[in-house]
Write a structure and sequence with these properties.
Length: 433
């Protein structure tokens, strides 16, 4: 594997990498007290836990995560498309190394309830009492906005998985792609905000890359309600035209309406520029990747934390504290206060900021979010060995505002993508791949 210094490809401070040799605490009681509880062991949660312990090795930090292993969305599309020699093992890791290296507590259980007033988290086996709570719980799908029939929702989840949550959904998509014999592979993109804006367009490229490599006669049809791709629009349109002209069919102003798995037909609305109205159309498909509207993880509402109508969590500007509680922070993909891309790098970057803010708060020091700004970089694979990136640098004017730069589609960006990813894995998990 190619290794590059993670901090050359991201905007996280290089001064933060330290190690510790204290063994992680063993948790074996029914009621646990901790200074800081972190719900969620993804990029945001683990980044925050790691940095809190770096800033104060004696701070009692507890991570609660239901998954048995860490599973990554970044580079999963490369794995689907057989690019960069990415293996499934490159996307999946144990939590043990991080727990031992950074010395936080880890509870591998499902959270059943959160009482923010009593400051309690109830899992299947424990009650965790905390002083500060960090919600890093990610997204949920809002299938109810697509289908009223619960059976249709279940069928769609199984037969046309969204693939924005790591693990089983990615394995299902991989099987669908490997067994594909020909015809239409349809990707439907939701309106509104969703996890990782470039992911569906990168996935279209990677599936087309697989079909091209294996000489499969197929079309990848992208239904997009927008005028142009939601991220890196010029570069993705260039990629569709340059590398996959005979494979990818991009349909803008197209809204997914329904799917029939028996007749293998999808119903959608497409805007007709001549008639200036939407027309109802249908297309046949062999396989489909239907991405429903996204919203904050259900644990946000279970904790009675305020959300906007679109389902994303409200924060107290310019902080990452919930407007519902001064002692609850929300980081990662669940927040809806700031126009941040819901990416792994942004999760990592904002987690570091919150860790520093919380340490300063505990030490009765002031922290200025307007002067401590996050940064983001996001890579998208286009072919076997070429990629495109976009970077965001922020300033604060009434709210966080970004200045962005998009790269060319080229090979060194793909090399940088590998360096960034494995550097981030080493950073938060303590594992060198």
């Amino acid at each position: 594997m190619i290794r590059r210094d993670f901090f050359k490809y991201s905007f996280v401070s290089a001064a933060l990498l330290t190690t510790s040799n204290i063994n992680a605490k063993q948790i074996n009681t029914s009621t646990i007290k901790t200074k800081v509880a972190i719900c969620g062991g993804g990029f945001a949660g683990l980044s925050c836990a790691k940095h809190l312990k770096e800033l104060n090795k004696d701070l009692d930090v507890t991570v609660i995560e239901k998954r048995a292993n860490f599973s990554s969305c970044p580079l999963s599309n490369a794995w689907l498309g057989e690019a960069l020699n990415i293996s499934y093992e490159d996307l999946n890791y144990d939590f043990n190394s991080a727990i031992l290296k950074y010395n936080y507590n880890f509870i591998n259980e499902t959270i059943e309830k959160i009482n923010k007033d009593k400051k309690q988290i109830i899992t299947s086996n424990h009650i965790i009492e905390y002083e500060y709570l960090i919600m890093a719980v990610g997204i949920d799908y809002d299938y109810e906005k697509l289908f009223k029939d619960i059976n249709k929702i279940k069928e769609c989840k199984l037969k046309a998985p969204a693939g924005l949550k790591p693990g089983s959904e990615h394995l299902a998509l991989k099987r669908m792609i490997k067994n594909f014999k020909g015809g239409n592979f349809v990707i439907s993109i939701p309106n509104g905000t969703y996890k990782c804006p470039p992911a569906p367009y990168e996935r279209a490229c990677m599936i087309a890359n697989y079909f091209k490599k294996h000489n499969i006669k197929a079309k990848v049809i992208v239904l997009d309600p927008r005028e142009k791709p939601a991220a890196k629009p010029k570069k993705f349109l260039e990629a569709f035209e340059t590398f996959y002209k005979d494979i990818i069919v991009y349909k803008p102003y197209s809204n997914f309406k329904d799917i029939d798995f028996k007749t293998k037909k999808i119903v959608y609305e497409e805007f007709n520029k001549e008639k200036l109205e939407y027309l109802t159309l249908s297309l046949e498909f062999e396989e489909a990747n239907i991405i429903p509207p996204n919203k904050a993880n259900e644990l946000i509402k279970k904790a009675n934390l305020a959300t906007y109508e679109n389902g994303w969590a409200k924060l107290r500007q310019p902080t990452f504290r919930s407007i519902s509680s001064e002692d609850v922070y929300i980081i990662g993909d669940s927040q809806g206060e700031y126009a941040f891309p819901k990416s792994a790098q942004m999760a990592n970057s904002t987690a570091y900021l919150v860790a520093q803010e919380l340490i300063d708060r505990i030490n009765n020091k002031k922290f200025n979010y307007k002067e401590n700004l996050p940064g983001n970089i996001c890579y998208s694979m286009i072919t076997d060995n070429k990629a495109v990136s976009i970077s965001h640098l922020y300033e604060y004017k009434d709210t966080f505002k970004a200045n962005s730069f998009t790269s060319k589609i080229q090979e060194d960006i793909a090399i940088a993508a590998q360096g960034w990813y494995f550097g981030l894995i080493e950073d938060i998990l303590g594992i060198k791949s």
